[in-house]
Amino acid sequence: MASSGEEPRSSSPGRAGTGTELSPTADATQLDTAEDFEVLEEEEEEEEEEDLSELPPLEDVGRPPAPPREDTQAPEQGGGEAAEDPQEWLDVLGSGLLKKKTLVPGQGVDTRPRKGQDVTIRLKATLEDGSVVEENPALTFTLGDCDVLQALDLCVQLLEMGETALIVSDAKYCYGAQGRSPNVPPNAALTLEVELLAARDAPDLELLSGKEKIELANRKRERGNFFYQQADYVLAINSYDIALKIIGSSSKVDFSPDEETELLDVKVKCLNNLAASQLKLDHYEAALKSCNLVLEHQPGNIKALFRKGKVLAQQGEYREAIPILKAALKLEPSNKTIHAELSKLVKKHADQKNVETEMYRKMLGNPSAAGTPGKCKDKLPWSIPWKWLFGATAIALGGVALSVVIAARN
């Protein structure tokens, strides 16, 4: 598995991906699980600690669905104050699961931020019992890119510059059924106090340095990893796509060979994780395309070979899938997962050939007779034509001889 060293992380204070659990990066402990399989491309340092004899970690591990929440009413405010007149609350989605109330008015509707802009907010997050689980004086993220909790992404675009608002969100738009260790339990609603501090256009991708582009692409990829861990594969695909667009964007800045290599490494990780997410949604053609793009850069990438073999197997293309899995097994002979998958496909391929043979036999009008030995069944169709041909030939020769004798007498 290709990896080019530990991935860089943003070091700017308040930037999404640093210093806050509500930021886009997945907690490292979430990805470095005790499971034996590996799905997501992580830093080389993490991969060395994992048991790579089997892959991938989340392929066969499902999560139980979260029980539906019956209480969808807005909880009390984080500071313990009861919510005031319900008419003051804006039902953002019309479902009662996400509500917003203005505490301090802003500078006007025309100062609201736009999707694609980088926004900076002051954030305080509390549980329903009022306990504070997060505070950040300057959290910066790209609006609309799903870099942060969905509750923030959906509501911040409704804030005016300088406005302070209270956002009450169901767990569905926060940390869901998994929660966030150690202080956000599963299925926990959150109350978010948010102040919009700044909004500016996102940086021009063409002017980013190699290091900046790598850091930005990695933040999007890590957010995709977070969504994958939450089993939200649609949003995971969205984040991986954004990362790939950043990597593939044109540049007016020259990159060093090391930076080019690192960008390629991030691209391969995104494509591999994209394929894993697409497989979860049964998007086989898209997953096959993602695997092929990886193999164009790294023909010996075991994850891409393994997933390509699985995609082809899901499509019933056992003849094509088997040599691909054999190639992966040759690269890592001790891999138990590839062994098991290959054995399963060989058996399925044999069963498929038996079914096809019987189908062709019936199509040719020669259904197998019950109780007839195999040898006789094979010879019987050909015995009658050969006897007929021999008799016809003998009659023809006799006729010719008779004609010769008659002609000689005349």
Describe the protein in words:
The chain is an alpha+beta fold and 410 residues long. Strands 1-2-5-6-3-4 form a six-stranded antiparallel sheet. The model is unreliable at 1-21, 23-39, 43-84 and 374-384 (pLDDT under 50). The protein has eleven helices and six strands. Helix content is 44%, strand content 12%. Strand 1 (90-91) and strand 2 (98-104) form a beta hairpin. The protein is elongated. Helix 7 runs antiparallel to helix 8 (302-314) and helix 8 (302-314) runs antiparallel to helix 9 (318-331).
Brief summary of the model shown:
The chain has 410 residues and is an alpha+beta fold.
Quickly list its features.
44% helix; 410 residues; 6 strands; alpha+beta; 11 helices; elongated; disordered N terminus; six-stranded antiparallel β-sheet
Layout of secondary structure:
Elements: H1 28-31, H2 44-49, E1 90-91, E2 98-104, E3 117-126, E4 132-142, H3 150-155, E5 164-169, E6 190-201, H4 210-229, H5 233-248, H6 257-280, H7 284-297, H8 302-314, H9 318-331, H10 336-363, H11 374-409
Antiparallel strand pairs: 1-2, 2-5, 3-4, 3-6, 5-6
Helix pairs in contact: 4-5, 4-6, 5-6, 6-7, 6-8, 7-8, 8-9, 9-10
Order of SSEs: HHEEEEHEEHHHHHHHH
Uncertain regions: pLDDT < 50 for 5+ in a row? 1-21, 23-39, 43-84, 374-384
Classify the secondary structure makeup into a structural class: alpha+beta
* Separate helix tally: 11
Q: Give the C-alpha Rg.
A: 33 Å
What is the average of the pLDDT values? Answer: 77
Helix content: 40-55%
